[in-house]
Amino acid sequence: MDDRQIQIVMDTFWPLLKAGVLYTIPLTLITFALGLIIAVITALIRLSSWRIPKLIAGFYVWIIRGTPLLVQLFIIFYGLPSAGIILSPYISAIIGLSLSVGAYGSEIVRAAILSIQKGQWEASYSLGMTRLQALRRIILPQAARVSIPPLGNSFISLVKDTSLVSVITFVEMFKKSTQYVAYYYEPLLIYCEVGVIYLLFCSVLSVLQNKVEKRLERFSAS
Fold first, then answer.
1. Would you say 102 and 35 are in contact if contact means Cβ atoms under 8 Å apart?
2. Domains and CATH numbers, the chain
3. Would you place residue 64 in the very low, low, confident or very high pLDDT band (cuts 50, 70, 90)?
4. Mean pLDDT of all residues in the chain?
């Protein structure tokens, strides 16, 4: 690495890191929270006896899981205006990522609920609880512990998936890096640099995830 490249790294690293902290991480947190709400609702509907809502929820999961996230973002941002629906890049990014998290997360939540032994339901009913009370007080807390590890992996993957919103002109960390590439003409250097920042974010989240899982293991053991 020559002096010019070192200077480029010094000039771009902190702006890229700042873009990650100010845009990439908040976007990840917002879309994961919304997606988790969608996931729980979708999972509960698919486990219910409501035929039409089950079909709608199943269709939603089928569509989202069967099409690339990139295509979904293009439809929301570039396709919907032809139908008279114009959304900002930020709102389009939130909608696209939240729907994606909701579909994949719903399968995790549904599997976690199904993993709870039927005896837990029967014990709840024997205590006079309704199905909703049993779900809220007994089943969901246990399912939450089961689903946290895979949901943690989904959260880490979401951090990387936010780079896709650069194609709809939302200026987050990866979009910022493409602007620097166009200015400095150093694609290998700058893309490696932004890759290191993504790696840093994901490594920190992985450490936090491991700590949460260990605490859950101690809680379950006790």
1. yes
2. 3-221 (1.10.3720.10)
3. very high
4. 91
